[in-house]
Here is the input.
Amino acid sequence: MIFHPSLFNLLFPVYNPLDIKNLGKSITEALLEQPIHRLSELNSFTGAGVYVIYYNGTHPLYTREAAGLPEDAAKVPIYVGKAVAKGARKGVINVTGTESRALYDRLTEHLESIEAGGDLDPSDFTCRYLAVDAIWIPLGESLLINMFHPIWNVTIDGFGNHDPGSGRYKSKKSKWDIIHPGREWAKKLTGVVLSREETIARISEVKQASPRRKKKPKGDN
Here is the structure.
């Protein structure tokens, strides 16, 4: 039997290591091979790149059953993020970000948010991080989010938000800030939002309507 070349390539695709998806996959695999660190015990380091944060506590919203996670839920991050060197959006950066503390500074910001949240114990959080060339950072973050659907990225948004600054406090609080009130700048936001109880109820409805993730994530925690 003779196949037309286009049909052959469709039935028997050729692996291309330089395909953008395969390059992104190599970043996610490299990240998930990195050691686990306690978020509250990080020592200063340099580099820009991608990271994942894990939660190992008992908050009722984030138990395996409540979040609809598989049995190996400890391997599923609660949040995925990226940290780019200053000047990245203007193209004025060190390609490897080796002179930047972007990853360390961003993870430290997250620790401060957790500490301010009020009902979260910082000692329940761990992380992995990987310094990545600037051009690949957005791709790595996107693939990690698609791989894990972390609850603080997908369902309870706002964890990674910054203070919008003076003159911009008419916007609404994020779901994260409604559920975990405490960040001083978030208290200044005046936009009309649901109550904490109503927000939690809505989130529970969304999680119950979503199918459980059946794929086993990679990496150990």
Remarks:
- Confidence is low (pLDDT under 50) at residues 211-216.
- The first strand starts at residue 37 and ends at 38.
